[in-house]
Amino acid sequence: MTQAWNFAGSPDGLAAGAVTLIEGSSFCISDAVGDISPGGVHGLFVRDTRVLSRWELRVDGEPVEPLTVLADETYRATYVGRGRPRAGLADSTILVERHRFVSTGMREDLVVRNLGRETAAFLLTLHVGSDFGDLFEVKQGQVTSRGDHSIRYDDHELRLGRRWQDHTREVVVSAPDARISADTLSFRVVVPPRGTWRTSVRLTPVDDGEALPQAFPEDQPVERTAPQVRRTAWRDETPSLSLPDPVLAHTLRTSSRDLESLRIDDPAHPDSVAVAAGAPWFMALFGRDSILTALMTLAINPSLALGTAEALARHQGSAVDPVTEEQPGRIPHELRFGVDAEDALGGNVYYGTADATPLFVMLVGELVRWGADPSRVRALLPHVDRALEWVERYGDGDGDGFVEYRRTTDRGLVNQGWKDSFDGVTDADGRIPEGPIALVEVQAYVYGAYLARALLAEALEDDEPAAARWRARAERFRQSFDETFWLPGRGWYALALDGEKRPVDSLASNMGHALWTGVVPPHRARQVADHLLSPDLFSGWGVRTLARSMGAYNPMSYHNGSVWPHDNAIIAAGLRRYGFVDHATQVTRAVLDAAAVLGGRLPELMCGFDRSEYGRPVPYPAACSPQAWASAAPVELLRVLLGAEPCLPHHHVGLAPTLPAELQPLSLRGLPFAGGEIDVEVHDGVATVSPLPDDVTLSTGTCPHCYAGLVDDDPPAAAVAGPATETTRPANEAAGPA
Q1: What is the residue extent of each domain of the chain?
Q2: pTM
Q3: Least confident of 163-177, 348-362, 396-410
Q4: Which of 417, 532, 592, 683 is the least crowded, having the fewest Cβ atoms under 10 Å away?
């Protein structure tokens, strides 16, 4: 039986040269010539099932030699190769192009060009197979054959099928003029000198007798197909950026392109588009990953954040189920749609996460802060209150005021925070603590959730007494958190509390998330900031997940010494919030430097070796790429450099740019804001915003109402060092009310 959710470790990596195409939740992994070879992780995956495990092209029985791959869009690629030279010839004259389009199925246009002076005649064969492997098993290299498999074919098509647990899945392969057998499509090809031959092969998955809709009909220009229309719309909606640094501009464009490719939709709710966690193995809605991505991209596309919140709300827990770890009000960890996943867990939704539920409340609060559609946000309020009920009832099972986790069966995740590998939580000596575990960052999110609920009470319910109660609850929680988690002998916050309420005393990056939500009292912030930027934690490419002095440290591990871009973006935002501009800028520059060296795309994580040890970031072999929160990190880091902190319910926008001179002048046009658009420009340290609503005040700080008492009125001078800036309206804009 599939052990889907308790995989202890990181997913298998892809071989060098592998090419991944994605569209929605479907994806295809092949080699550089376009072949899908059996026995590994190659395949076409639709609804979490590998519907194609073999797809190999041969010319007279010989494989095609790869030349190049052209992939301007994430859903399509052109694989260019050549046939083997014939006997007595030094070079091949046969050029083979495979134009592949991936959606809920696949279309492949085969184009053969004869570059020689004689007619070429050969047998072109396409070998086809499907194991209908479950995605979880494929990524772990443990595919199990289940059910009754069948092969049917005639003159028109090949049908590969499987029946299991009253479900049938088929894949239909067809092509004009092909001779079809049990596992092969054959074409007798004759190409005149300097001539071209072409055909099109279509692959259509069929679930329980229903053929899945195809996105790329042969008679429709690609520019008019639904995937390309969606991409064009995204690019039209996304703000345009101009700055003098072409490397950073390329990184931000790559991030936007990757985020667009990771969008997934629900056919039953076409207006609600969410974001998947990452390619290739996590093309599904994940509570924590999708929420953090949405939070970091609110500035460029609030519709993605709103759609993510709505999708998670639709699957919010309503019952107690120990197998799936569902509980009333709990936000899911992961949604899957494969038949095998349903068998493993009794459903396609798994709820084993401690952080997604308070993060969900924070996300809804940020939607209001950034001016998302009030009617759609208001519809989420019942889900917000159910989420907070989960926090205080099921999340805090022992009533000590903190949210803990412990899996309810041996199928669940052992660790249910963002460091969810089996050894992701250790003490300073490297020991794995016994649960239930109360993570430091989860408590930070709870504090943020309480503040978010206060803002929602003001903005959507006009209920000041309720807002005051939630803020008072947040302050009581903050005091209790500091008393319990602070390690006075170490000068940092404990990574967690174990099942005996003893501090797990590792020095780890997690406490940076406490700066992000503001739960750290101001007098502690300097020590936290300095530890995060100490050589023990800071690698030069970012803050490590675990300090070098800790017993479990391993720079090549998944969670115990690696560098994660999203983690660093959150840390940078927290440092900036407390006024530690130099610290925040150092983290920001380190991560953006890594992106530049890596060609503009940040991976899910990097090894934690010191920058002085190796002159470039050392890749982690199994990292997802593109990955949602890694793609979102540069967007968030740009927001950190701009010091952008809106709070529309309190008619406030903070903008305090600390951009290095080489990034100026900077222009952002078409930023979504309060139902409209604004332009932001920074030149010589001066920021202008146009058009800003008359009832909004522009300042250089956070909202004084929401964050009163969050930071010292006068942070240490060293913390705010940097270029002097002035933030003003354009000359033709009148100042709003104070």
Answers
A1: 19-221, 257-626
A2: 0.89
A3: 163-177
A4: 683
